[in-house]
Design brief:
220 residues, mainly beta, seven-stranded antiparallel sheet, 36% strand, globular
Length: 220
């Protein structure tokens, strides 16, 4: 059996003029599906991996399950690329948190006729390879979203979280961190948003963060 392949950089999308789909090799002569390079290296090298810290002020946790208000959203303003989420988390800004924290999330539209969300105070986005590409994602604060719709739009526990112990102490636990290792199990299509809520006992103020890569993908 003979397999022919092309050594080339990561393409944005296969040209429609190409009659067949060619297998792609990397510069290390491995198939692109193989893990010769570090797991996340290729998308980072291609300048497609980004990260955000949502704000500099943070917000308190809530014991109320979220419905049509998302305390934080990552809005995808790009018309072609989807946001494939790597990680979502939150770190303690102030206060004494209670017994752990649960990160809730929803992939959703924004409310009908609502303006595009504005970036939260102090929000930042960075290209994780300092590359020339820029993200059109908008890390915003409290945003109204539509009512939940069947299986297509519901709040869930963000995938990839592990059990967390009680991090509360007699003094402020600044910097304590909670993370969800999502690894692509959340995708934000163009024009949609990832809503995030910090769900837990009162006592702490948290700032959320996230990392993702951007690609033109087929969403069925």
């Amino acid at each position: 059996m003979l397999i022919e392949a092309i050594v080339r950089r990561f393409p944005a999308i296969r040209a429609l003029s190409e009659p067949t789909a060619a297998a792609r090799l990397t510069g290390h002569l491995s198939l692109a599906v193989g893990q010769v390079e570090a797991e996340f290296a290729e998308m980072t090298r291609a300048g497609r991996r980004f990260a955000t810290i949502w704000s500099t002020s943070g917000a308190a946790t809530s014991t109320a399950y979220p419905t049509t208000t998302a305390p934080w959203v990552l809005y995808n303003a790009d018309v072609n690329k989807s946001l494939i989420i790597d990680q979502v988390g939150a770190f303690i800004l102030s206060g004494t948190p209670g017994a752990g924290l649960t990160l809730l999330g929803i992939v959703t539209a924004i409310a009908a006729n609502a303006a595009v969300p504005a970036a939260a105070t102090g929000a930042t986005i960075t290209n994780l390879s300092a590359g020339g590409q820029y993200s059109k994602a908008v890390p915003a604060g409290s945003t109204t979203i539509p009512a939940q719709l069947g299986q297509s739009q519901q709040w869930v526990v963000i995938p990839g979280q592990q059990g967390q112990c009680n991090v509360g102490t007699a003094t402020a636990s600044i910097g304590g961190i909670f993370t969800a290792d999502v690894r692509g199990r959340l995708i934000v299509p163009p024009g949609k948003a990832l809503g995030v809520a910090t769900f837990g006992t009162t006592g702490g103020t948290f700032i959320p963060f996230a990392s993702w890569y951007e690609a033109e993908i087929d969403l069925e």
